[in-house]
Amino acid sequence: MKLRFLGKNSTPGDSPTLYASDQDSYVVQGWKIYARDLLARLEVPDGHTVVEVPTELFEHLVKDGVSTGKIKNFSAPIVLVTEEGTCVVQGPQMRDAEALSQMRMPDYETCVEVPKSSIVALLEGPTWT
Q1: Residues whose CB is less than 8 angstroms from the CB of residue 84 and which lie 6 or more positions away in sequence, other chains included
Q2: Among the four 37, 42, 55, 103, which has the fewest Cβ within 10 Å?
Q3: Distance CA 127, CA 121 (A)
């Protein structure tokens, strides 16, 4: 799988990143979730995982030809919005060796792959409040 870097939201030591793949999907790199209270609220199927990212990460979608990166519909693959306003995104855990070799990922991060159509659908509809 080939990846194309769309953007990242970084502060020192943090690097949630968004990529477009050649498989009609997006790869969302974000923070692993360790908080037991948060994990207890989630149902994560086998082979899937969750990552936490700032909502602003999706603003980089415009670099993939999407008209806006403003999330309006917080639904799957976003499974939770935290009290801090970050998104928890669920999807199959990335295991593609070629894709992983193109990424710089610290130990406290992981990534999921989600269909482009699922992410684009989040940009449509009424604004979430």
Answers
A1: none
A2: 37
A3: 12
Q: Burial-class residue 122 by CB neighbours within 10 Å (0-12, 13-18, 19+).
A: buried
Structure confidence by residue, pLDDT tens digits, 86-117: 999 999 999 999 999 999 888 999 999 999 99
What residue spans of the chain are helical by DSSP H? 36-40, 97-101, 116-121
Report yes or no: 99 and 42 within 8 Å, Cβ to Cβ: no
- Whole-angstrom distance, CA of residue 127 vs CA of residue 72: 4
Stated pTM of the model: 0.91
Pull the structure tokens for residue 100.
């992983």
Question: Are 3 and 21 in contact, with CB atoms under 8 Å apart?
Answer: yes
